[in-house]
Amino acid sequence: MIQDQMTPIERLTAYNLGNPVDRLPCVPIVGNTAARVIGVKVGELPANGKLLAQAQITAYRRFGYDIIRIFTDLYGQAEAMGARVRYPEDETAYLDQPAITDISQLDRLTPADPYRDGNLPHQLEAMKIAIAEVGKEVTVTGALTCPFTNASFLIGAENLARLVGKNPDAVHYLCRLSLETCLNYAKAIIDTGCTPSLTDPMSSSTIISPQKFREFSFPYLKQLIDYIHSRGKPVTLHICGKTAKVWEQMAEAGADCISIDNAASLSEAKTKVGHKLRLMGNVQPSEIMLQGSPAAVRLAVLSGVREAYDNPKGYIVASGCSLPTETPFANIDAMLAATREIGYPITKEKLDLLEQRWSK
């Protein structure tokens, strides 16, 4: 078995500088799979900072990937602003009821205090613990839901979709409130020593048009990214689904790295925006990581590397989105093992040889 020769921070630092590395950075986006690593229920994590930190630190040490992401679900900020979230005993949380159901109730909403409201204090506690225990060897990030997506959780996705056409002023009001919460939370995340990791699924071109992205998502996303940059932190931005039509806007908003869903093409992203930002992705979380074999994982990793290893701004091997909770450990091991065997530097000839061997 090939062993890592560098710590994750050493690897990313060298890679950023164009210096030699032992392999590409690799990030199977481990969310609630971490509960399985320490043998606890998923529902135990969101309100228990110590347990959440233990799960994510243990998962990192178990698999050896390059970035820890403190994350349980997308709804923490909205819950802190009054939304009702349901926490099943052993499944990922889901939105039970938005904070309001009609724009006549807008005055009920106020920005969240991440040190006081909802489960945000527990998330911050987990980040502090992770930084204290492993922050010198691996980058620790804190998941942050972006303003437009958070706005959809405040009034409900269907209501927001109607308002986009009928009452844009109300949408902007919700996005401004959400931005305030995002800025408060981003500041708190950075103050722990972590880096915010941005997720914005409702801004997907699968859901809204590029024109509506420009009007309702982009202005607030850019303000958030500008703030994070002002604190000296880079920004990785993940938008689910089809995103090719907004890649240029994601780059314009200031993202340093975009996480590509498996519904999008790494090679197309490389051609369109690879000279502007780093790419990350896009092994299928469900079809390959959850349901596939280790052999299928290795070939999927190889395919992604073949598409994007020569991206001008760099490439990170990763899943296309957060891994399903029941993802087999053997498949996460296979992603790391494949990345280690591919090694660095990378040539087309080496990839061809590995494909011949792994396809047998």
UniProtKB/TrEMBL annotation:
It comes from Sporomusa sphaeroides DSM 2875. The lineage of its organism: Bacteria, Bacillati, Bacillota, Negativicutes, Selenomonadales. Pfam families: URO-D. It comes from the Bacteria. PANTHER family: METHYLCOBAMIDE:COM METHYLTRANSFERASE MTBA. InterPro entries: Methanogen_methyltrans, UROD/MetE-like_sf, Uroporphyrinogen_deCOase. It is an enzyme of class 4 (lyase). This is Uroporphyrinogen decarboxylase. Residues 7-341 form the Uroporphyrinogen decarboxylase (URO-D) domain. Keywords: Lyase. GO terms for molecular function: uroporphyrinogen decarboxylase activity. Gene3D superfamilies: 3.20.20.210. The keyword Lyase applies. Its EC number is 4.1.1.37.
